[in-house]
Amino acid sequence: MVSHVKAEGPKLVDKLLWGLAFVIIAAGIGGNYYFIQYSLLMRTVAMLICAGLAAGLASRTVLGQKIWLLWLEAVQEVRKIHWPTRQETVQTTFAVLAMVCVMGVLLWTADFFLLRAVKWLTGHWGV
Hints:
The structure is a single chain. It is built from four helices and no strands. It is mostly helical. The longest helix is centred in the last third of the chain and has 37 residues, at 86-122.
């Protein structure tokens, strides 16, 4: 029974933190519209501050920590990617362009002969 009470504590705190984060975001959006007469730069800075505060609160929750770990793992995976060199990119681009041209000519030729065959079969050769 005591473990059940401990499990409810963090859930309530997490809900409160998420609720507060959403309230901060809503206040930032509302403030952005309410203070429309002020410069866009000031309103943008205020929205970034609200977003930072909300993200800070959300990161204190269990779900927020899981999302942060997922983000860190994604960054590690992106660092493992082998990005092509300029020479590899140029060579691959030319190979793709050459294949597009070859396939274009092949499809045009097939379309030309199939159109002639259909016209001959349907008797519309002269039209």
